[in-house]
Amino acid sequence: MIQHVFGDEEMGNTQIKEWYNRFKDGRTSVESEARSGRPSTSRNEIVIDQLRTLVMQDRRITIRELADEVGGSIGSVHSIMKEDLGFRRISVKFIPKLLTIEQKQLRLEITQDMLETVNSDPNFLNTVITGDESWVYGYDPETKLQSSQWKHSTSPRPKKARQVRSNVKVMLTVFFDSSGLVHHEYAPHGTSITKEYYQEVLRRLCDAVQCKRPDLWAVAIGSSITITHPPIFHI
Prior knowledge:
about 40% helix, alpha+beta, Arc Repressor Mutant, subunit A, 8 helices, 5-stranded antiparallel sheet, about 15% strand
């Protein structure tokens, strides 16, 4: 009858029998009885402030370490962190490099200078060659999609041996402009990337510009070349 009135998710036969026996034994209230033991005091303003201070001092501290510090349970501390303090634990985001304040300021100044130049000269970006370096593997195995092929219903299924990515890595240096690739090269195996090596790379870049961008090279004669890092060459 209860499920007919309130739905199938209400009390089942086992719960109804338990409550029936309790009232049969003399119980008159449907309120929960007081439990034995001292009341919980782990969720109060003092504990919340302690947890906030601990987290601000060490963002990597764990729930278990917090519970040990304040003398509370893991479940209680987790509830406070989520509901009272609004914290949630997330993984850090990987970025290529952490910059110092000076490096950030230098990049900001260069960017502002280039933005002002672009606003005054719409053709400025067409005279910029930029580039970067990256480690690449000697070869990568084909993906499952790349190695797929057509076959007839009666022909056997093609097979190939499992391959792994090459352990050999080389340094790839690439330079490009608004029209596309200008120059690229691989550093010889075992070569150290020194100032002298990079000077040779820039000389080969100038040769590539003279060959592939003759109009740009004609403008560059008698002009200066500005070099920054990441590499940006303004002719």
